[in-house]
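Project channel, design review

CF: Before we commit to the Penicillium angulare constructs, I'd like one complete example in the thread so the newer folks can see what an input/output pair looks like. Taking Protein kinase domain-containing protein.
RD: sounds good, go ahead.
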Amino acid sequence: MSSPFLDKHGQFIPQKQVLGNGSTAVVLLQDGIAIKTPLRWPWSSDSDFKVHLESIRREQKVYHRLQNPDDHRSSGIVRCIECSTESTQLALIPNGDLKGYLTKHQPSREVKLSWFCEMAQTLSYIHDSSVLVADIASRNFLLDSDLSIKFCDFSEASLLPLDSDMEAVDDNGYTTHVDIGFLGAVIYEVVTGTKCDIDLYEHNDPTDGRAYWPDRSGLPPTQDIWLGRIIEGCWDGTFRTAHSLLAALSAVTSPLEE
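CF: and here is what came back for Protein kinase domain-containing protein:
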């Protein structure tokens, strides 16, 4: 059976090769490696392909920045094996994405808490590397064979100057607060089993183009749920950095704590 996606020769890609896709790229399984290439639909124009290719190349620069074996926190990023002009070779992560994993498994609170600490630790590394992720969602985390968790999608990321003041940086509304807020939404989803949809453009003027974190009234309640206070802190700005979020998560000494 063929997928709806085309390869560079204009032929339909076999469905069994497709690991996943987003709005600009498709990820294929080839020889035990995940290959990320620009998305091609049968109706895609040359200009569509050019935009998707530019997204791949921007993301490659982010991967290059974040591949740092001298910092143990970089292990929370899926490993980039090689980049070419039209594709990115990534390590194959066997347990798939977090969103799909949770539809089939019910991990313990201990496992979930370890994920949240790993997420916060890796986000601290990403921000320390002067990168904003922008698109943090359960579908963009992968689970390795040992259930360690990894960030895998930087197609919307902002690659900033290395000397950036990350607590002050603002890329058209995207900030470290927004990244931490989105991570709080992932924690909420894992804890409650309910996706927390956040639209940064819901109430802004169409001509504005800036992203805005929503008012508290647009977010679900966190009372009486596990880690509710930490989730709330992600959303209300209590955690100004991913380091402070990690400290709060690391201080949870029992999975029964709220």
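RD: helpful, thanks. The chain has a mean pLDDT of 94.
CF: The chain has two domains: 2-91, 98-250.
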